[in-house]
Amino acid sequence: MTDKTKALMARGAAFLGSEHAILCGAMSWVSERNLVAAISNAGGFGVIACGAMTPELLDAEIAATAALTGKPFGVNLITMHPKLFELIEVCAKHKVTHVVLAGGLPPKGSLEAIKEIGAKVICFAPTLALGKKLLRSGADALVIEGHEAGGHIGPVSTSVLAQEILPELAADNIVFVAGGIGRGEAIASYLEMGASGVQLGTRFAAATESIAHPDFKKAFFRGHARDAMPSVQVDARLPVIPVRALKNKGTEEFTAKQREVAAKLDAGEVDMHEAQLLIERFWAGALRRAVIDGDVESGSLMAGQSVGMVTKEEPVADIITQLLDECGAALQGR
Predict the structure, then answer these.
(1) How crowded is residue 211: how many other Cβ atoms within 10 Å of its Cβ?
(2) Would the CA dihedral through 48, 78, 95, 21 be positive or negative?
(3) Helix 272-291 with 249-266: angle, nearest 10 deg
(4) I need a surface site. Which of 44, 60, 87, 124 has the fewest CB within 10 A?
(5) Contact 61, 29 (CB under 8 A)
(6) What secondary structure does DSSP assign to 229-259, as a single string?
């Protein structure tokens, strides 16, 4: 890593307690003990994807990750999880240093609960106004994630979000940029714009240490940017956050699932919160089928548009070294 890269990442690295200000995005079923520990051991910052885990499962996962690395790592919690506050207690038990809140606005009292356990809170900011509000509410850092990312996505591209938010907030706050980052040259650009670091998911999903099924990884190696498409919302009354994944039969099945949930909503069988949870459970199951079972036909192949830059299985340490080398070379020439 060049001196310039180190200097530009210094604030982010100090905040995370890692060597490099490179977070791994929390990918359900993928960001588990093995990948998380490998990223932290390689100098990055791994983040456990809690997803739909029960408090008992998260408890076991944190303990297993801590057994594989002595370096800092974080835990990503979904704001709509019905047992969010119990999950925060599990993080407290293990003295987790950083909690990432994802999937919507943090519910009342959640930021305070995390701060009370002595952990730092990282929140996702899809707009400048929301970023300011989250910082006022007590968020210690923000991730601005663009439309190009894999999994749940917002409507605005990373490059536009960076131009809107970094000049306003990056001087006085820790802001990480995410979405569509596959090479170090892009990292260099965002660091120069004031970002404290970056977050990548897709680039790590098919790493050697990832437990993802070989067929899941092969789908990534075959995939191009244009193959990673956002899901379609079929009913305006059902506010489903779009999900970007490689197009397959599972994409069509999700459209059918939305119609089914919308019909239950119409019939009064479920309320809006339950409807959203049903959708989330669908994704968790479809993702598991792809990642763990290798069902690349009807499972969910969540991937960002940077998937075209994932061409082979590589160790995490090599990926991080390559990103830092590319970033350093780009900064050196400026």
Answers:
(1) 13
(2) positive
(3) 160
(4) 60
(5) no
(6) EEPPP--TTS-PPPEEEE-SHHHHHHHHHHH
**Which pLDDT score is estimated for 232?**
84
As beta bridge partners, residue 73 has 46
* Cα separation values, 81 from 17, 54, 87, 300, Å: 27, 9, 9, 20
Q: Is the dihedral of CA 202, 125, 85, 120 positive or negative?
A: positive
Handedness of CA 78, 79, 83, 85 (dihedral sign): positive
Question: DSSP character for 306?
Answer: G
pLDDT at 239: 67
Selection from 313, 312, 327, 65 nearest residue 188 by Cα:
327
SS3 call for 272: helix
Q: How far apart are CA 207 and CA 312, in angstroms?
A: 8
Q: What are the mean pLDDT values of the chain's consecutive 10-residue runs (334 residues total)?
A: 95 98 96 98 98 96 98 96 96 98 93 97 96 97 97 93 98 98 98 98 98 98 97 77 90 88 90 84 89 96 97 98 97 83
* H/E element, 24: strand 22-24
> Using N-to-C axis directions, what is the helix angle for 55-68 and 84-93, rounded to 10°?
30
Query: What DSSP designation does 19 have?
Result: S
Rg of the chain over all Cα atoms, to the nearest angstrom: 19
- CA dist 230 and 227 (Å) reads 10
Q: Which helix (DSSP H) or strand (DSSP E) does residue 321 occupy?
A: helix 316-332
How many whole angstroms separate alpha carbon 208 and alpha carbon 193? 32
Residue corresponding to tokens 């379609």: 232
Whether residue 178 contacts residue 149, with contact meaning beta carbons closer than 8 Å, is answered with yes
Contact call for residues 323 and 9 (beta carbons, < 8 A): no
User: What letter represents residue 210's amino acid?
Assistant: S
> Domains of the chain (ranges plus CATH)?
3-211+311-332 (3.20.20.70), 214-305 (no CATH)
- How far apart are alpha carbons 243 and 151 in whole angstroms? 5
